[in-house]
Design goal:
- The complex is a heterodimer of chains A (428) and B (951).
- Chain A has helices at residues 6-17, 114-121, 151-154, 173-207, 224-230, 246-256, 272-278, 305-311, 335-344, 349-354, 358-363, 412-427, and strands at residues 26-35, 41-50, 53-58, 68-79, 81-86, 124-129, 137-140, 142-144, 155-157, 162-165, 235-240, 259-264, 282-284, 289-293, 300-304, 316-317, 381-384, 395-400, 403-407.
- By secondary structure, chain A is an alpha/beta fold.
- In chain A, the strands form 4 sheets. Chain A has a 7-stranded mixed beta sheet, with no helix packed on it.
- The two termini of chain A are 42 Å apart.
- Chain B is 23% helix and 30% strand.
- Chain B is built from 23 helices and 46 strands.
- In chain B, helix 4 (223-239) packs across helix 5 (261-268) and helix 15 (602-633) crosses helix 17 (774-780).
- Chain B starts with a helix and ends in a 6-residue tail after the last strand.
- The chains are: A alpha/beta (428), B alpha+beta (951).
- Chains A and B meet through helix 4, helix 6, strand 15, helix 8 and helix 9 of A and helix 3, strand 13 and helix 13 of B.
């Protein structure tokens, strides 16, 4: 897996062409308040960015004379959000065939999708786009920034997680689990067979029956993702729709020894104690609050999956809802709503904030680059007008790799909706 | 002690006595390390003292003691053989109660989902479909602690059945056997597998797209052949070791093929085979298969066993499981839907099986409520099983048939401490399970009810002008007994502590449709004769959801439709029964009024006038009754009565007239309700015209009766003049309108006009109850308010003025223009029920409708006008607060104001002594988004308790 930072390349390329852009190598953000996520909150602080990377954060930093200064002294700066699992931004979330591990979302992501536009408008800087849950082995995801004209522009990492789903769909749960065992068994059979044939091939080569420079066949590309998974070279994003499947999902993971990030439906929180013993961060589906009628007592009760997990200190990443086939979704598509829902249900503010920043960064293996405002991390920042958990707070500016990727005052859609006057007023 | 139990007790075998004596003398070290209730290293001991103890194998101990250590039975004994009580043990004293092993359900569909497409799926494991997180309260209520999970029933080889515990923290620890048996269907169910379509992702000529494939067997004739072939393939591949590929069979995509391994184990005799064979023929085939392949077999539902009892006796099967096909307390449909395949289910079959030497295990049928599980054993006794066999059939023998007898089924040392505490003899009709224990832990207990409730929290906002810190509210019989600061809590009260909680009266949603969408036909339109309180569905889960959000009362009506739009019922969001759910059947009458202009108010005024006339009928009737009662007591009023009633006897006009139009161009039905005035010439009344389902009505104007000539006019589809000659109960004349003249004849169908002098002395003059006029009558009696949906400023003004003039209670709703300029409401503004768009943006400016109105002194309420969304009521109000509404006003708008506006403030709206105990406790200020609902009490019952879910 190679790191792709196209914006750096772009900057360097621009720098060689035009001296006037050189000044943009250094950017200084003067912030009224910086929520670093990992290192507390700083008042009246300065963030110095060099070549798209945060160089320094602190209160007594002198801005270099030639640096571009972004004045946010009446605003709040925090890292852009990281969404660890979404199927948004594609025309269809997944293939209808169940066993298609060889597919990749690279072939489906639509850079002009409104989903990405809205994500950026709401301060999301990184998304792991992965096939949806209505499959068995659904294909591979990629990590992207919601900014750019082509998929290549947007790509942060290709070949990210592999979707494994226990969603029973219209069938029964036990049949689904059986199918997963069988699909994996098939790849293992193939590997065993290939090993045998490889040994034969080596023997034949020794005997001179095949040419000296002949290579043994490559691994079947249709099976490669599962082979990688079984070899520990890929991570499964393992969708578990309800608490009923948790025990089984753990058993499957341990039986085949693959790396898995659990993506949990809202009712999974009933198995929170089990998840607590796991000690790994999990991903929550966007729907956080779930109503349930006890079939025995007819009691109605509401669970907030995030709150149940928080009680047992299970770290979790929050998701945001995507609109499917143009159908609008509710407020769960807003990061602030998701975090406020957690807090409303008793989750600590810090934990709610981490659930869209450092925890998903860790889940995606990007905690060295993303998820907090610290020296050495990629300068993915959002400048907001107030408390990020409030509905009245707007995202004013988003910097991705130290570059301005979004400005509310320049937002064409808001201009179209509200007219010039209001956007500039709000932006102020 | 009953004779039966005595008999059982006498059968206590010598061996068991010796074992128990041993257990009493030196504690057996029997409990194995895994599966215990306590963490490793710690020893937790529980001693159960009880009356009769059924060991499960047929023996019964009287006044027994059982010692449980780490979830396992350590020792059991009675009398001299009672085990010593270890020091530090927890004592569970259920003296006088009966203890028996946790019941073992030998069959269930608890794991079953949709049937597999494929007919042969031996590698399906039932436990994969079982939801461990789900509570199994009904089963525990029935004393059932262990259940067999069927992998499915309608396929030839459905998969492997599993056995699980029905309670316990550790999910995987609850699995007693994941592969307990291989399930094979020998009967018609196996013939119904669908044809399978196996598409290929990218078809080529080598790998083409094939049509759907029919699966064998499709008739009983090929059943055995098919099964034999399956087993032969499995055995062949077991013997020859052709690498891993050989262990799989089947067709289709990789994930659809199956493993032969379970079939191999079955063929080796390592896995028992459970064969469903209801009919005698199926049973015969099952026995042949078992004999040929040397299978260890359990029969499932062998209802026609009596026809093959001898064969069964010769060839020992391991046991038989019966799901008794009786649904106690429910309908028991016959085999109407699958008549050909259903055999007669002889309830004697279990007894026949027992006589044939089979172990018998019982279970409930699919739809039977497991809470009465013991009944099936009692029923089997009625049909020939001995009490001991019946007891064993749900405990020891069931465990043996399932292959888990080493863990459960009897209460002997070393077994899991799964037991049920019963109120009496196990098979007696009045006996209930009181407690169910799983592995030494109490898993379920029957709840006793308590009457006095005390809730303590940080702060109580009474909305009656008081705020109490350290507040205590006492409730009894659904009413508030006391509210105050630091009140002493009486003995015996159920105390609910909500530290940090803020208590407010339950919220009132002043307009929604909760409870009306139940039948899936959508929200009905409102109508004046629609008795909303009777049509609401009390089991609508949306009521409970509203309660979860802190709503305790909802004002429910159909959607607004026409001028007189419909009744409003006041409902609680939770109640033990329908009667207490309905707070007031008719709490208001809704109107839609949006006419503007000189006479715009007239239709509304006409409707109210109809209500007045209807009221007058009743008042007259009541006055007459009162007079009559008085008259019977004293004779002096007789003259008065004559005076008023005499002239009316000759009244030729008053009554209901059915009008027939002569050669009418279209079928218009016209009814006249006329009334002759005191002066003998003025005629007032109503014209009602029906055309198909449409109905229009208007008042009669300038009505005059001179001699036998009636003249009048009315405006209905244009001004109309009436001229008619009145005869004896009939009249004829013409209607003159701009469209032309129309001849008509009319006959009097009733003389029951408001002032009708009735000939009948016995008081048959009682007016007819007219459901469409009842709410109007309540309105003119000022018992309920009119809720008028009106938006435009002139309309608002005219409505407010008219109602003030009439001195009738009025509530506006919508009131769009008033939210912008409250001055249109006048000096004494009526209450307003706002729609949920409390804060609007208009031309870029923010408009806080709620704050605007309260600033003008308007009593505000809020109605969401929806079903599922009704619960978001407090959020809408929070939005208004966010943009400037005074939180105190906001709280009143959700509690006291709607209560007053709908004249319900004698029952709800504030926390005061004597009012209903309806309240909510929040974790903080009720309008903070981060606050959560911790406790909701409706009518003194705790309906929501989420104290554990917050932090």
């Amino acid at each position: 897996m190679n790191v792709r930072l196209p914006s750096w390349n772009l900057l360097l390329w621009l720098a060689t062409l035009s001296p006037s852009v050189c000044a943009q190598d250094q950017v200084v953000v003067k912030a009224g308040k910086v929520i670093t996520v990992t290192k507390g909150t700083l008042e009246n602080a300065v963030i110095l960015i060099e070549n798209g990377v945060i160089r320094e954060v602190g209160q007594d930093i002198e801005a270099p004379w030639d640096a571009t200064v972004i004045d946010a002294s009446d605003k709040v700066v925090l890292p852009t959000y990281v969404v660890a699992h979404t199927s948004g931004g594609m025309s269809n979330p997944n293939e209808n065939m169940a066993n298609v591990p060889y597919l990749t979302v690279e072939d489906a992501v639509d850079p002009s999708s409104q989903f990405f536009e809205e994500a950026l408008r709401n301060g999301v800087g990184t998304l792991h786009v992965i096939p949806g849950n209505a499959t068995l082995l659904g294909g591979r995801g990629m990590i992207i920034r919601p900014f750019g004209r082509t998929v290549e522009d947007m790509a942060v990492r290709t070949a990210a997680g592999l979707k494994v789903s226990l969603d029973p769909g219209r069938g029964s749960r036990m049949a689904k689990i059986r199918k997963l065992h069988r699909a994996i068994a098939e790849v293992r059979e193939y590997l065993a067979d290939r090993e045998r044939r490889e040994a034969e091939f080596a023997k034949e080569k020794e005997a001179g029956a095949v040419a000296e420079d002949a290579e043994f066949e490559e691994i079947d590309p249709k099976k490669k993702p599962v082979v990688d998974l079984l070899a520990g070279k890929a991570t499964a994003f393992f969708y578990v729709p309800s608490a009923a499947e948790i025990a089984e999902a753990l058993r499957i993971r341990d039986r085949y020894g693959f790396k898995a990030v659990f993506v949990l439906g809202p009712a999974c929180s009933k198995a929170a104690t089990r998840l607590a013993r796991l000690g790994e961060p999990v991903v929550l589906m966007p729907e956080l609050e779930v109503w349930e009628t006890d079939p025995d007592t007819d009691e109605e009760s509401m669970y907030c999956s995030a709150a149940e997990l928080a009680k047992l200190s299970v770290p979790f990443a929050l998701g945001i809802a995507e609109s499917t086939r143009g159908r609008p979704t509710g407020p769960t598509r807003y990061p602030w709503w998701q975090m406020a829902t957690c807090v409303r249900n008793g989750v600590d503010r810090q934990m709610a904030l981490e659930a869209l920043t450092i925890v998903p960064a860790r889940i995606l293996g990007l905690e060295e680059e993303l998820g907090s405002i610290e020296a050495g991390k990629v300068a993915n920042l959002q400048i907001v007008t107030g408390d990020p958990l409030q509905a009245t707070t707007w995202v004013d500016t988003v910097l991705l790799d130290g570059e301005v990727a979004y400005q509310r005052s320049e937002d064409p859609r808001l201009r179209h909706l509200f007219g010039e006057a209001e956007t500039t007023e709000d932006a102020r | 002690m009953s004779r039966r139990r005595q008999a059982l007790a006498q059968r206590l075998t010598l061996a068991t006595s010796a074992l128990l004596a041993l257990a009493a003398g030196a504690p057996l070290h029997a409990a194995s390390p895994q599966g215990g209730a306590a963490p490793q290293g710690e020893v937790s001991t529980t001693v159960v003292r009880c009356g009769a103890l059924y060991v499960g194998d047929g023996t019964v101990l009287e006044d027994a003691t059982m010692v449980v250590q780490n979830g396992r039975v350590l020792a059991v004994g009675a009398g001299a053989g009672a085990p010593a009580v270890p020091s530090g043990a927890r004592i569970v004293d259920v003296t006088g109660k009966t203890v028996m092993p946790g019941l073992v359900a030998a069959d269930s569909d608890l794991a079953a989902g949709a049937d597999e497409r494929y007919g042969v799926t031996p590698d399906v494991v039932a436990v994969d479909g079982f939801d461990f997180a789900k509570r199994r309260l009904r089963w525990l209520e029935g004393g059932v602690t262990t259940a067999y999970l069927s992998p499915g029933r309608a396929r030839l080889v459905s998969g492997q059945g599993s056995v699980v515990k029905l309670a316990g923290e550790d999910m995987m620890g609850r699995v007693l056997a994941d592969s307990a048996c291989l399930r094979i269907a020998m009967g018609g169910a196996a013939l119904r597998a669908p044809a399978v379509f196996e598409p290929t992702a990218a078809p080529t000529s080598d790998d083409p797209l094939l049509p759907a494939r029919q699966q064998a067997p499709t008739a009983r004739i090929s059943l055995l052949t098919e099964l034999r072939e399956l087993f032969e393939t499995a055995v062949r591949s077991d013997r020859g070791s052709n690498g891993p590929l050989a262990a799989f069979s089947g067709t289709g995509a990789a994930e659809d093929r199956y493993s032969l391994e379970p079939l191999q184990r079955a063929a080796r005799g390592d896995l028992r085979v459970r064969v469903a064979a209801a009919r005698a023929g199926d049973l015969r085939r099952a026995l042949r298969l078992a004999a040929d392949l040397q299978l260890a077999m359990v029969l499932e539902d062998p209802w026609e066993l009596h026809r093959l009892a001898d064969a069964v006796r010769r060839q020992q099967a391991l046991g038989a499981v019966f799901r008794l096909p009786v649904r106690v307390g429910g309908r028991n449909p016959g085999g109407e839907d699958r008549a050909q395949d259903e055999p007669e289910r002889h309830l004697d079959a279990p007894a026949v099986a027992a006589r044939a030497g089979l172990r018998v295990a019982l279970a409930t049928s699919r739809d039977q409520d497991a809470a009465d599980f013991l009944w099936i054993a009692a029923l089997a006794i009625r049909h020939g099983l001995t009490p001991t066999q019946a007891m064993r059939s749900v405990t020891a023998d069931a465990a043996a048939v399932l292959g888990v007898a080493d863990r459960v089924g009897t209460l002997t040392p070393g077994k899991d401490a799964d037991f049920a505490v019963l109120s009496g003899e196990p098979f007696a009709v009045g006996t209930l399970v009181e407690q169910t224990w799983v592995e030494g832990t109490l898993a379920w207990e029957r709840q006793a009810s308590s009457s006095l409730l005390a809730v303590r929290c940080d702060r109580i906002e009474t909305v009656a002008g008081q705020t109490f810190g350290n507040g205590v509210l006492l409730a009894a019989d659904g009413k508030i007994k006391a509210v105050g600061e630091g009140l002493a809590v009486p003995y015996g009260a159920r105390v609910v502590d909500v530290p940090g909680g803020v208590m407010v009266p339950g919220f009132v949603n002043a307009y929604c449709h909760v409870g009306l969408s139940g039948d899936g036909t959508g929200i009905p339109k409102g109508a004046a004769d629609q008795r909303v309180g009777r049509v609401v569905d009390p089991s609508d889960p949306l009521l409970a959801r509203a309660a979860q959000a802190g709503l305790t009362t909802v004002l429910v009506s159909g959607t607004d439709s026409s001028l007189v739009s419909g009744r409003v019922a006041a409902l609680k969001t939770a109640a033990p029964d329908r009667d207490s759910l309905v707070l007031r059947e008719t709490a208001a009458l809704r109107f839609v009024h949006d006419a503007v202009g000189a006479d715009a108010i007239k239709p509304l005024a006409d409707a109210v006038a109809r209500g007045r006339r209807y009221l007058k009928k009743w008042q007259d009737y009541e006055a007459k009754l009162a007079k009559k009662a008085k008259g019977e007591a004293t004779d002096e009023d007789d003259e008065d009565e004559d005076e008023t009633s005499t002239p009316k006897k000759a009244d030729p006009i008053t009554g209901t007239w059915k009008v027939e139009l002569v050669d009418a161009p279209f079928p218009l039905q016209i009814t006249l309700e006329l009334e002759l005035g005191e002066d003998g010439s003025t005629v007032t009344g109503t014209v009602v015209a029906r055309f198909g389902s449409r109905e229009m009505s208007t008042d009669v104007q300038d009505g005059k009766l001179e001699g036998d000539t009636l003249t009048a006019s009315f405006t209905l589809m244009g001004p109309t003049e009436v001229t008619a000659t009145v005869g004896e109960d009939s009249m004829s004349g013409s209607l003159q309108s701009p469209q032309g003249d129309q001849e008509f004849r009319a006959t009097r169908t009733a003389k029951d006009g408001a002032a009708a002098g009735d000939d009948d002395e016995d008081g048959d003059g009682k007016p007819k109850v007219d459901e469409s006029l009842e709410p109007l009558r309540a309105l003119v009696e000022k018992k309920i308010p009119a809720v008028v949906r009106v938006d435009r400023a002139p309309a608002i003004r005219s409505v407010v003025e008219w109602f003030a003039e009439q001195e009738l209670p009025l509530v506006l709703t919508g009131a769009r223009d008033a939210t912008r300029d409250p001055a249109v409401l006048g000096e004494q503004p009526p209450g307003v029920v706002l729609d949920p768009d409390v804060v609007q943006r208009e031309d870029g400016a923010m408009l806080n409708a709620a704050a605007n109105l309260t600033d003008h002194g308007v009593a505000l309420a809020l109605g969401t006008g929806d079903t599922a969304g009704a619960r978001h009521l407090p959020l809408h109000m929070a939005l208004a607060v966010r943009y400037g509404l005074d939180p105190t006003e906001a709280l009143e708008a959700l509690t006291l104001h709607p209560a007053r506006l709908f004249q319900l403030d004698d029952r709800i709206g504030s926390l005061e002594r004597g009012k209903d105990a309806d309240f909510v406790v929040f974790s903080g200020s009720p309008f903070e988004l981060t606050s959560r609902v911790l406790l909701v009490v409706v009518g003194g019952r705790v309906v929501v308790d989420q104290r554990e879910q917050g932090r």
